[in-house]
């Protein structure tokens, strides 16, 4: 046999020395390191220049990292970079496409968010198979554009086709997506939820949050109780969702239970959670409890300060709200535009016109904040509540932007409250011409006709509403008792105890007449005689709710009512008397503020 070949001597670096990387590999690694350090738009330019110089614009890994870096460091550059670098011949992979979808979904720019879903069909045209990470990003992009549910339905179909619809992350995102499409798609969200294993708080939180977004807060509370019974431990997201439901329902007992639950279960009281607690306690009428949570916070953001200012404003405690605003500035927290909405609202609800003017002027002069239409709306509301209708009209006409319908309707309400019916009619007619699909414009003009006893014209407005399929939102009041929320509508007989409730309302009316209360029949905008008008006022939803609580609770128990509309002047006067006759503190949250009735007076001092 021939002798074996001689052994070659190893390189000087030893037998285990790795071969030096190729120039292209070294350039790729250097570019990736530069992209890791890119945290600002200017710092992104260096790796971009290097990428172009070294010909890495066709490298999928480098492009993936570039688009991800642009999304976080320079959102405005993301779309131009994609348009320039995503060439037809570029090789794609699932990692790159997933990154593109995710980067566009997370963008603060609406145009980028709208473009996110378009990368999925591109992926399919290029023959790249999606994976289980593709669909959560894709479904989030569909959820970010709730006005186009067709794309979401197609994405769901694709998830089914590729076999990923049963994946836990995909299912959770499907629930979130459908709930973002509005109340009409909550059934689809629930169908996905019912088919998904319920062993994760994320799944429960997605459905609870969907119910809250869809206006079904009572269903959210029911589902939360099912979650507790199932043994799944709620997390912070679940708690935030149920606090939103409690705020919507005005469910103070539930809110206090959640606060105790957070402490008992050791769920961290993050700044976000504490801010939510402040907001919920305030909306449930416990403003002092909201202030206590705020004072116990170790760390506060501008949202924390603003939440307390809003809470005090809603209850008409304007001077206290202004004090908190000044304290916020004193400790070095600069107010933002939302904080100014809070302090202007506080001034409006407390009749502090001069102070409100000063804060409005200071936005530009002291803080460099350009007032938005919401701030102008606060000022119009403040002038209107104070009876300065002409000043409010001049203010609207001098606005630098076109007034929106809300501002005009605010002015109409002020005109009606202060007897300027001709001006109220003129503005209402203009609004109806420009916005013929909004029910509030019809109702306002109809009310003007009723106040001036022009019943024929009022009937014509109502017929026009009926012809267009426009209906008036009915008054509705909620009360929470023994952990259950009860709903009342004017004249409704659906409650199991409606007979006892109606008898209690009649007793309340007798007691009010005994002490001299006279019903404000001018509030009844119907062509009825005085006796029938008084009867119509008697069955308003808040009176039914109060009668129910008086029946079911011992003397001295506080009564809390949440109403979806503004409290009428007759109910306001009647509830003051009820608080005196029955020795109860009655808290009513209407659509704009809180009223705390006690011993025959209201915290708003009849200024609302």
Automatic annotation (TrEMBL):
One of its GO terms (molecular function) is zinc ion binding. It comes from the Eukaryota. Residues 516-608 form the DYW domain. Residues 1-24 are annotated as: Disordered. Keywords: Repeat, Transit peptide. The keyword Transmembrane does not apply. PROSITE patterns: PPR (PS51375). Gene3D superfamilies: Tetratricopeptide repeat domain (1.25.40.10). Residues 1-23 have a biased composition (Pro residues). GO terms for biological process: RNA modification. Pfam families: DYW_deaminase, E_motif, Eplus_motif, PPR, PPR_2. PPR repeats lie at residues 200-234, 270-300, 301-335. PANTHER family: DYW DOMAIN-CONTAINING PROTEIN, PENTATRICOPEPTIDE REPEAT-CONTAINING PROTEIN. This is DYW domain-containing protein.
């Amino acid at each position: 046999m021939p002798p074996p070949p001689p052994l070659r001597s190893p390189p000087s670096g030893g037998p285990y020395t790795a071969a030096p990387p190729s120039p292209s590999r070294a350039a790729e690694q250097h570019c990736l390191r530069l992209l890791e350090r890119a945290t600002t738009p200017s710092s992104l330019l260096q790796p971009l220049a290097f990428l172009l110089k070294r010909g890495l614009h066709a490298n999928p890994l480098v492009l993936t990292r570039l688009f991800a870096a642009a999304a976080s460091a320079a959102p405005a550059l993301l779309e131009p970079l994609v348009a320039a670098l995503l060439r037809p011949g570029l090789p794609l992979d699932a990692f790159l496409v997933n990154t593109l979808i995710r980067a566009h979904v997370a963008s603060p720019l609406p145009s980028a968010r709208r473009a996110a879903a378009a990368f999925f069909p591109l992926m399919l045209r290029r023959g790249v198979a999606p994976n289980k990470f593709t669909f959560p990003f894709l479904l989030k992009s569909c959820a970010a554009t709730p006005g186009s549910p067709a794309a979401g339905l197609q994405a769901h179909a694709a998830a089914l086709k590729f076999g990923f619809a049963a994946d836990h992350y995909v299912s959770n995102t499907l629930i979130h997506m459908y709930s973002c499409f509005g109340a009409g798609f909550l059934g689809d969200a629930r169908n996905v939820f019912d088919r998904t294993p319920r062993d994760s708080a994320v799944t429960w939180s997605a459905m609870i949050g969907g119910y809250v977004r869809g206006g079904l807060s009572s269903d959210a509370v029911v589902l939360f109780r099912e979650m507790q019974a199932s043994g799944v431990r709620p997390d912070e997201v679940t708690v935030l969702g149920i606090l939103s439901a409690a705020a919507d329902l005005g469910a103070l007992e539930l809110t206090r239970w959640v606060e105790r639950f957070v402490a008992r279960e050791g769920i961290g009281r993050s700044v976000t959670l504490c801010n939510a607690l402040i907001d919920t306690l305030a909306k449930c009428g416990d403003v002092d409890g909201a202030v206590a949570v705020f004072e116990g916070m170790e760390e506060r953001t501008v949202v924390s300060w603003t939440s307390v200012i809003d809470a005090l404003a809603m209850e008409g405690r304007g001077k206290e709200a202004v004090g908190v605003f000044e304290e916020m500035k004193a400790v070095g927290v600069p107010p933002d535009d939302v904080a100014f909405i809070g302090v202007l609202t506080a001034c409006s609800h407390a009749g502090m016109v001069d102070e409100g003017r000063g804060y409005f002027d200071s936005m530009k002069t002291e803080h460099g904040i350009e007032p938005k239409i919401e701030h102008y709306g606060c000022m119009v509301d403040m002038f209107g509540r104070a009876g300065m209708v002409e000043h409010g009209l001049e203010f609207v006409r001098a606005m630098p932007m076109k007034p929106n319908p809300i501002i005009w309707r605010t002015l109409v309400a002020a005109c009606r409250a202060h007897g300027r019916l001709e001006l109220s009619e003129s503005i209402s007619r203009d609004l109806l011409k420009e916005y013929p699909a909004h029910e509030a414009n019809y109702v306002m003009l109809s009310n003007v006709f009723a106040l001036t006893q022009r019943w024929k014209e009022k009937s014509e407005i109502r017929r026009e509403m009926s012809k267009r399929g426009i209906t008036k939102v009915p008054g509705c009041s909620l009360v929470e008792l023994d952990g259950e929320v009860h709903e009342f509508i004017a004249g409704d007989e659906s409650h199991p105890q409606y007979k006892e409730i109606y008898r209690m309302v009649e007793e309340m009316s007798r007691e009010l007449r005994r002490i001299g209360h006279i019903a404000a029949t001018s509030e009844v905008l119907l062509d009825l005689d005085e006796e029938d008008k008084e009867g119509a006022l008697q069955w308003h939803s808040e009176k039914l709710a109060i009668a129910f609580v008086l029946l079911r609770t011992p003397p001295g128990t506080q009564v809390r009512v949440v109403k979806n509309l503004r409290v009428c002047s007759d109910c306001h006067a009647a509830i003051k008397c009820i608080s005196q006759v029955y020795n109860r503190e009655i808290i009513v949250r209407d659509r704009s503020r809180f009223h705390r009735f006690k011993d025959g007076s209201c915290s708003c001092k009849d200024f609302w």
